[in-house]
Design brief:
Number of strands: 12
Distance between the termini: 64 Å
Structural class: alpha+beta
Number of helices: 29
Shape: globular
Amino acid sequence: MSEPDRIRKQQVAASLREPVREAADLAGKLGLDPYPVNYWIIDYDDMNELIAYDGFQERYPHWRWGMKYDQQRKQRQFLGGKAFEIVNNDDPAHAFLQESNTTADQKAVITHVEAHSDFFKHNQWFGLFSDAPDAARMLASHARIVESYMDDPEIDREEVEEFIDHVLCLEDCIDQHEPFAPVASSADEPFEADDIAERLDQLGLSDEVKRQVFSDEWLESQRETPDEARFPAEPELDIVAFLRNHGKRYDREAGKAVDFEDWQREVLDVLRREAYYFAPQKMTKVMNEGWAAYWESMMMAEEGFADENEFVDYADHQSMVLASPGFNPYKLGKELWEYIENTTNRREVAETLLRVRGITWRNFHDRVDFDEVLDALEPDPIVAHVDSDSLDALDPEDPRVDAEALAAARAGEVDVDRYPWKVLTYEGLCERHYSLVKRQHRGFLKRLSQTELERIARYMFDDDRYGSVEEALADVDRSRGWDRMREIRESHNDVTFLDEFLTQEFVDENHYFTYEYTHTTRDYRATSTDVEDVKKKLMLRFTNFGKPTVAVEDGNYNNRNELLLAHQYNGVMLDVKQAQQVLERVFELWGRPVNLKTIVKELDDHDVEVARRRDREPTPEERGKLVRFDGEEFFVRDLPWDEVDHLAATDVDYDTKPDEWLA
């Protein structure tokens, strides 16, 4: 780094010390509890490199990083995309800020990072890898291990890189729902019964001894049936671990499978460990980015962390992120977190009002004036508008007021005009930012349906607690929304998050819909706004990282030590050409023929044409297929349905096309 560059970065760092300190303080006030965060100032090229390296400074040598770097650089150059920051899951976390960002951008990034770090620390899916990941050290160690093998004069560097290519093709073929554990040694896999005669020959026994000791009946008894020889006993989702335990490399000179070399086993261990480390980030993309976007907006806009000279720049920054085209996890995640907050607060209000004497779920809409309710729920002016002139009105005994900070503010030690939240507690901030009274959400309470009210009232027993609506509203817990959000943040991943909290109300309010390719019109069309259809499409995107779920079904297929993989079909067929390319890679890690069972959809051209004339979609026929690769060529054959029936989707159907179409 040149001296001018070093000085410039020091100046940027110095200007951000206060925002970093105050953002961490504000995050704590709002109920967040992040890992400590180390912030680094980097330039444009460094940012592209870190993004290519998945947020870390050291990774093992491989061509994929250069490809990702070039892709990131060209995306910025030709498509106008901009990376504001990158943060990694570690304790302490490390966040990298681009020096060319505006002050508003830097503050937005810092608040965003604090929320990410909170999510990393508390989401249980991240804990499946380790409670103390020390990821930077781990990945740097991995880099040195792989680099040492590439520099070893006795190991061909290209062979190491090619082996990494084989493994990376399967990097998502792990069991991401199980805690990470190193691969344990297991018993050797069954040997082929056909090799028994060869082994007896190696003993040098005479034919007479063989006949007397090893009878034909005994030899036949050693030939296990396919069911007896099957291993694993249950389908194994962690294909990488299975190959680490039972795989071999194919020696082309010897024409047979031989044991992995030590360096190959260690590389398999390294890449599998990294796959498990990065899995939670892939499993929680919508939740994590939505969580960060929600709290960033809360801090920057609603708490005024962006001052009046920075707000327009920040608004431009936020709109750029939330309005990105295509599927946008930031937008979907933020909208869902806001919806969860609103529904939780709405339920709290409904439960409270249903305990007013004379109000039931049947007469709720007749007896309750929603505008008056919202007016009563508006935050108290003493917490809504805090400045240096209102300090005398704050009571240090009030649970909404931070007594210690208030004393410091009255002594002139706290700039309360710039940071009014400093003199409030969590309870005070919950009231200050109560969601139902915000302008954009004021209609939310009125959308309470009779069905929902009946469901809430069904399990209520103390329904005569309050004498009036005013008395009841004074008892509303304004912290319920944020408390519930933190509970959800701890236990869910994207699949469970969407499955539980995506509702028809949310779909309608945020204008989500599905679309399909139709054979009748030969184009894509919007097909449904039904919540179940939208949910199916989104679940498909996130189940197993949006990739096909494939498991090891048999490591001794047909009693010949062949590998049988099974595709768990969910209504979306594999790209057979890509599947064959993957099988070629798997063969290099198994050393013997590999097989893949799957289900495909087949359409007859005649059926397609007839359906088009009738303005209907053709119905494809589902067939079982077996793809086999023996190291030289592929073989594809049909399978009886009873051999693939257990792989077929049952109550899950990702096709959302209506039965009939108008051409």
